[in-house]
Amino acid sequence: MTASIRQSLAAAVGSRHVITDPDVLASRSVDHTGRYRGRAGMLVRPGSAGEVAEVLRICCDAGAHVTIQGGRTSLVGGTVPLHDDVLLSTERLCAVGDVDTVERRIQVGAGATLAAVQRSAAAANLLFGVDLGARDTATVGGMAATNAGGLRTVRYGNMSEQVLGLDVVLPDGSVLHRHSRVRRDNTGYNLSALFVGAEGTLGVITALDLRLHPTPSHRVTAVCGFADLEAVVEMARVLRDVDGIAALELIDARATALTATHLDVPAPVRGDWLLLVELASDHDQFQRLAEAIRGARMCDEPAVGTDPAAQQRLWRVRESVSEVLGVDGPPLKFDVSLPLAAISDFARDAAALIHARIPEGLPVLFGHIGEGNLHLNVLGGALEREDELVGAMMDLIAACGGNVSSEHGVGTRKRAYLGMTREPADIAAMRLVKAAFDPTGYLNAAVLFGPS
Fold it and tell me: Any idea where the domains of the chain sit in the sequence?
């Protein structure tokens, strides 16, 4: 990076918000898993949409690549710089506005954490529809950029269902303000939808209007144990359409064995596969849950929580899984989106594939089974032998009718497999959109489908 670019950026955002310290840049050039590393020339922290616009204009004119960073919780290298980039952090765009309790919405900066949004919503007796285990660090701008889902997707949908409006700085430095106070705005193109899920390739989201939901007054949580995965899938088909469904989470008993050993969080019921179910509504849900799971092929009586403390203990079983996946080093991760009918066969064939290629590898499967959105992690040093497994696993996912990406995005690590689920004409159309917004291709250039 030339001194003139640094000087121009310092004039735009303030000298203390342009950082070139090698240690800081090195720490910002590795992803959340520690698997992927890149190289950055400087870190810039704008404090407003206007400053973001000026940063992009300077970098575009200078031919400098820009990589956008929020909470840096990407699992697919989506925030790793590859071109000696300028890192544009949204961390200072963290304002959280007042809750509009009439319209049930809130305006926040893209750098606001999910936890901050949840706290503001809860204070107004409302809730935000997307929840993730990384809630304390994940930013809502990054979540919108990847169209994140999470633990409540079966009830409220992904981020695309929560975004009512946004501010975006386009690659040429112009600012798009797309906000409307009406509930149905069908005027022209739905540009907000274009930027949600674009993984930062079309612009920098700087602020969002987010939908909030009433907080249910009654909630019941249960963990059920099953001997075989097909029985879990059968139960999931039933439960995902039950009124009041709020969560539907699959948990591999191989994962709970780890949580019991390392976190003293054992499985509350017997079974090779666990299903966490939660119903929530404005009236008691216990009887509805009992009726919904009656006849299920469970190994044991379910563990049920009707008060907040008991529910929190059951949720701890699910949320502890992510905490133990890295106890023996970073796992090899696959974000799998599958038809429900294919889940059982996929789990069996994936385990066989892993054992054939990496005998010491331990497969752990968990996730949002109501949508067929599952997370397959391979533990036991599998990351060091990634090349032996990834291509074959992607072929298996495709053979099962699955998708290359569900809620983590494509990032840089899955772009070679985009053609699994997108036709050439589809990819060509996306490239045309990218070229229209960013003719030089300098913004998040390595993400999604990479350079032309």
Answer: 96-214, 218-324, 332-409
Per-residue pLDDT band at 34 (split at 50, 70, 90): low
For a pLDDT cut of 90, what percent of the chain falls above it? 63
Write out pLDDT tens, residues 274-323.
999 999 999 888 999 899 898 889 998 999 999 999 999 999 999 999 88
Q: How many Å apart are CA 235 and CA 113, to the nearest integer?
A: 34
Within 13 Å of residue 340, how many CA atoms lie on the same side as its CB?
Answer: 17
* Pair 242, 279: CB distance under 8 Å: yes
Q: Give the C-alpha separation, 149 to 375, whole Å.
A: 12
Domain 218-324 has CATH 3.30.70.2190: yes
Per-residue HEC secondary structure of 19-40 comes to: ECCHHHHHHHCECCCCCCECCE
Q: Cα–Cα distance between 399 and 22 in angstroms, integer? A: 45
Query: Is pLDDT larger for residue 433 or for residue 390?
Result: 433
Structure tokens at 148: 């994140």
- Cβ neighbour number for residue 151 with a 10 Å cutoff: 22
Class of the domain covering 332-409? alpha beta
pLDDT tens-digit readout, 104-139:
999 999 999 999 999 999 999 999 999 988 899 899
CA distances 307 to 121, 131, 218, 314, Å, are 21, 20, 9, 11
Fold matches, 218-324 and 332-409: yes
Per-residue pLDDT at 256 exceeds 80: yes
Determine if the pTM surpasses 0.70.
yes
Q: Where are the alpha helices (DSSP H) in 124-228?
A: 140-145, 153-156, 191-195
Q: What is the DSSP letter of 302?
A: P
Burial of 90 (0-12, 13-18, 19+ CB in 10 A): buried
Of residues 416 and 56, the one with the higher pLDDT is 56
List of E strands, 260-361: 273-281, 303-305, 332-337
Fold of the domain spanning 96-214: 3.30.465
DSSP class of 87: E
Least Cα distance to 113 among 53, 152, 153, 73 occurs for 73
As a whole number of Å, the CA-based R_g of the chain is 22
Q: Residue 434: its pLDDT value, please? A: 94
Of 9, 167, 164, 148, which is closest to residue 71 (Cα–Cα)? 148
